[in-house]
## 1
Amino acid sequence: MDTSVSHQDGLTPSEPASTSSLPVFDKDICAEDMDKMAANAMRASNFLKAISHEGRLMILCHLASGEKSVTELEELLSARQAAVSQQLSRLRLEGLVTPRRDGKTIYYSLTDDRPKQIMEVVYDLFCRQK
């Protein structure tokens, strides 16, 4: 018996909804878990807004494999330096990437594991063949 739920966007979760390990999606969610979500909803919303641009999303995908220079990102994205720098600036402002200067070259890396974890989920949802 198929217990997965079909969504309007055509995506189907890989696991039945009842086996979710996320407390937010558990039918027996407690008040403490809801309070945690409410306290962090703005941070989560800002994080999702920061990655909701195709260019920024692809920058994070490339940085998930390691540090890259602005020039490397330009080539990987087939984009102009001004566009790449603008998107890096937004990601830096949100605390998702960290710059490092070496002479005239600026390198960027992910600040922590959050963007990489999200990129893995995005890849699983949209890129992995089922």
## 2
Amino acid sequence: MPKEETLEFSGIVSELLPNANFRVKLIVNDGEYSADNKSSSQVGSELSKSDSELIADSISCLENSAVIAYTAGRMRKHRIRISIGDRVKLEMNPYDMTRARITYRFKD
């Protein structure tokens, strides 16, 4: 079964929550998000005009919003620490835009 489309964003950790959860403030730029495992030409051909407009509208609504994120399994496995103020890369499912998975911590 193929994996579903995920949206990638970057954000800044604003709060540490219990159970290895984090509140992350999203940073949304025009070219920042992308669909995982698909090129932009494939995504455009698979989505109808209304679907692509819907995704663009939902992304514009997310600008400067906060989501609850959890760490990915490999980050837990390698014990990568995340603290307040870290810039991270997130993956979000288009069906639930309130939860995200932290997949990378930038070395800034």
